[in-house]
Design brief:
Shape: globular
Strand content: 15-25%
Helix content: 25-40%
Bound molecules: shikimate-3-phosphate
Strand order of the largest sheet: 1-14-16-15
Structural class: alpha/beta
Largest sheet: 4 strands, mixed
Length: 425
């Protein structure tokens, strides 16, 4: 067989369950008194963090194992935790949980790993305090913090950043506090919480940049099938676009419009990508994504697009390293407060493997090259950085080592095997 055909990608693939949907399903399942079941749940470290914290609040959650249906039994009411709630590496767990705890009248302390303890929490605690919760926030604006929920009042709040975690925290405080919420968003962010709450009969109306929530619903046990995570699929699709030949499909992937913005950016780069066959699961569109080996060109991505590709910037920037010309990704301030300072770390790691890259203000510039990429990548434990550079190292003749490839497990258990599998069938 010729080397090119050995390196060609092919086949129909699957990715683990959507991280955002899994977190919400675990948290809401724990809050709905009775037995809920979740199929296709992500079983990664982040999902385990959500399971761990709700167990400490009185829910019973079956072990998170790939392929197993997850069963959650929500207690009649949450109990005060006897120890700090460890959210691990998961910002979504910490922030959504804060919202849920705001309507519970007991104190709870939240903590997490070194990365999470550094991530900003005041953006969440400020509106919750305005609603009536008490929060002791450390001076460094992070974790550990203690929240004591209480009787809440309605809130109208302008979000300082487009953040689904922040938006969801306030909405979930509306749920546990039983009060209306009006939010003004600087830009749309992922809307999984809104879709789920509507399913339970809550009123969530969105007009222009204003979201109105009314506590008209009731959380009852549910059965939910989690679609594949589009953010995980993005890494496989990028690997296909960067491959010397071939094409792949990733089936059963969540195609919520607020999550698949990366397809447009990939397409603007000349990547042959597609989306087809939309079904629906629990208010979420599900379909098949495809990508084929492509010649890539540079892109200039405006700041308004950033919220729609927030988790895909690392892999898009990695693709830009293989695109002809200079790419610019604008308005990425939020990337500085992710699992790592992704803006600085992407640029530094691209340079470490021989790609010219630079941070200018809040923009990331990447100069495409077709030279073999050689060097060592430092992930700081950031799963998306680890995966982006494993994808860049995937085509033949690249010599990239990633210091901690296994940290991909935070969102994509089995990532290295899935990547290798693109050539295997
Ligand atoms: C998430 C929202 C995003 C995203 C994160 C998951 C969510 O964070 O980066 O991976 O599930 O709500 P921000 O809301 O901080 O942008």
């Amino acid at each position: 067989m010729a080397p090119t055909s050995r390196a060609a990608v092919r086949g129909t693939h699957r990715v683990p369950g959507d991280k955002s949907v899994t977190h919400r399903a675990i948290l809401l399942g724990a809050l709905a008194p009775g037995r809920s079941t979740i199929g296709g749940a992500l079983t990664s470290l982040d999902a385990k963090s959500s399971a761990r914290v709700v167990r400490a609040l009185g829910a019973s959650v079956s072990p998170l194992r790939p392929e197993a249906i997850l069963a959650i039994i929500g207690p009649r009411r949450w109990q005060a935790p006897t120890r700090p709630l460890d959210c691990g590496n998961s910002g979504t767990t910490a922030r959504l949980l804060l919202g849920l705890l705001a309507g519970h009248r007991f104190p709870a302390t939240l903590t997490g790993d070194a990365s999470l303890r550094r991530r900003p929490m005041r953006r969440v605690s400020a509106p919750l305090v305005a609603m009536g919760a008490r929060v002791d926030l450390p001076t460094h604006d992070g974790l550990p913090l203690t929240i004591r929920g209480g009787r809440l009042q309605a809130i109208e709040w302008t979000l300082p950043v487009a953040s689904a975690q922040l938006k969801s925290a306030i909405l979930l405080a509306g749920v546990t506090g039983g009060v209306p919420v009006v939010l003004h968003e600087p830009a749309a962010s992922r809307d999984h919480t809104e879709r789920m709450l509507r399913h339970f009969g809550y009123t969530v109306e969105v007009t222009d940049s204003t979201l109105r929530f009314a506590p008209t619903g009731r959380l009852v046990p549910f059965e939910l099938q989690v679609p594949g995570d589009p953010s995980s699929a993005a890494f496989l699709l990028a690997a296909a676009a960067l491959a010397p030949a071939g094409a792949i499909e990733v089936a059963g992937v969540g195609c919520n419009p607020s999550r698949v913005g990366f397809l447009e950016v990939m397409s603007a780069m000349g990547a042959r990508v597609g989306l087809e066959g939309l079904d629906e699961s629990f208010g979420e569109p599900v379909g098949t994504l495809g990508a084929a080996a492509s010649a890539l060109r540079a892109v200039d991505v405006p700041a308004e697009v950033a919220p729609a590709i927030i988790d895909e910037v690392p892999i898009l920037a990695a693709m830009a390293a293989r695109a002809e010309g200079v790419s610019r990704f604008r308005g990425l301030a939020e990337l500085r407060v992710k699992e790592s300072d992704r803006l600085a770390l992407m640029a530094a790691n691209l340079r470490a493997i021989g790609v010219e890259a630079e941070v200018q203000g809040d923009d990331l510039l990447v100069v495409g090259t077709d030279r073999p990429l050689v060097g060592r990548v430092v992930t700081h434990g950031d799963h998306r950085i680890a995966m982006a550079f494993q994808v860049l190292g995937f085509p033949p003749k690249q010599r990239i080592t990633v210091d901690d490839p296994a940290c991909a497990d935070v969102s994509f258990p089995g990532f290295a095997a899935a990547l290798a599998g693109l050539r295997a069938r």
